Each structure stands twice: as C-alpha cells, then as structure tokens.
Amino acid sequence: MAESVSSCVKRIVDKSPFIGEMLTLGILSFSNYAALISDEVERALGKPAKSSAIVMALRRYGEDLKRSNLVRDTSNVNYQIVMKTNIFDINLVRRDSFIGKLGSLYNQISTEKGDFLNITLGSHEISLAVSEKYRPLIKELTKDEEVLNKEDDLVALSLVFTGDFLQTPGIVYEAVRHLAWQQINVIEIVSTMNELTFVISREDSMRAFDVLQNFLRVQ
C-alpha cells in the first residue's frame, strides 16, 4: 500500500525522539521542519508533496502526541538519591566458566558496608560494575576471559523509591529523557522493584544529580 504524507511524516518524526518531544511541547517550527524533511517525504512518496500538506501532517501528529503524553499522576511516588563513587565497569563475552566464578565474587564483596556490585547477564555478554577497590579481584577472575570493554572513573546514582514506582508508567522514560536532554551518557541502567540506578561518568555526576532531583516534577 502506498504511503501517505501523514504516514511518511510520522515515520520520520519517530526516528528522532527529540523531534517528537519538541512536537509534544509545541516548540517545533512546522514550516522550517517541513522544509527540512520535504525531500525525504517526496522520495518515500515517489512524487512531489506540498509544503502545506507536510505542515498539516506535522500539526496533526503533534496533537496526537500531546493526547498520548498526558501528564501522569506521580504524586504517590517519592524517592531519594544515593550516590556511590569510585566504580569501574567491565564487559565480557558470556561463558559458563566465568558464571561459575560469580559465587566467589559475591562472597568477597561487602555490599552491606556500602560497596557497589552489579552483575548483568545478557544472552551473549556479561557486564560487571564494581567498586574500584575490588579491581585486583576482578582482574584475577577475568584473566582468562575475553574482555570487550572497560570503563573507569564512574559513579552510580540510585533512585530509591517509595510509593507506586512499579505501577506508574513512564518513570524510567522520564528519567532517561531528562538525562538525554542534558547530553549525559548512561553506561549502565539497573532496575529493581523499588530502585533505579544509573552508572555514569564521574564528570557528569553532579549535573545528573541535579537533573534527577526533580525530574518527576518538571513536566
């Protein structure tokens, strides 16, 4: 089935979350953006498209986005932020031989005393985010493993929630969106029932802390 101007515009906007955000907030210049994407729209259609038709499609899609992005009730969700510093992150190829070593790793790291440890098992990879003082231990455990990447000088910002965090849609999205707007790169995201943790570079930590302090109240 041939594409319409509206479907072309929607597909183009959906490729860029920031453009969708600007449409939702009503701060995008329809005419300027229509001129920017007109060539792409015409290539998809296989024929010329009027600028006015593209503008109208943008306007209508913006209204659709506003209706689907109504402000959520987060009044029952409260949280505090816990920061842990001096963390490093290492990614490995997943192997059963290394998974068998994780028990000894847990036994030697004192999370009750404030040390940080997060292990993520993917289908093909394993990531470890660990307090810096355990680097010699990790180096020994991974000496025969295939290391994919290492990141140093990291910080973990944990949002510890009370209330209806688990049952309130959009909280993770809002946190990530606000960090992205500030050009803060996230190395790891960890989520449990009442906690949401971002592992980021130390140089971004204070900006991220400021962003996350009020991200649910800024709509």
Sequence of secondary-structure elements: HHHHEHHEEHEHEEH
The CATH superfamily name of the largest domain is VC0802-like
Give the helix proportion (percent range): 40-55%
Classify the secondary structure makeup into a structural class.
Answer: alpha+beta
Task: Name the CATH architecture of the largest domain.
Answer: 2-Layer Sandwich
> What share of residues are in beta strands?
25-35%
Low-confidence residue ranges: none
Distance between the first and last residues' Cα:
38 Å
Number of domains: 2
If helices are DSSP runs of H or I spanning 4 or more residues, what is the number of helices?
A: 9
Give an account of the 3D structure.
With 219 residues, the chain is of the alpha+beta class. The chain has two domains: 5-68, no CATH class; 77-213, VC0802-like (2-Layer Sandwich), CATH 3.30.2130. The protein has nine helices and six strands, in the order H-H-H-H-E-H-H-E-E-H-E-H-E-E-H. The protein has a six-stranded antiparallel beta sheet, with helices on one face. Helix 1 (5-14) crosses helix 4. The protein starts with a helix and ends in a 6-residue tail after the last helix. 21% of the residues are buried.
Question: Descriptors for this entry?
Answer:
219 residues; alpha+beta; 2 domains; 42% helix; elongated
Describe, in short, the structure shown:
By secondary structure, the protein is an alpha+beta fold. The chain is built from 9 helices and 6 strands; from the N terminus they run H-H-H-H-E-H-H-E-E-H-E-H-E-E-H.
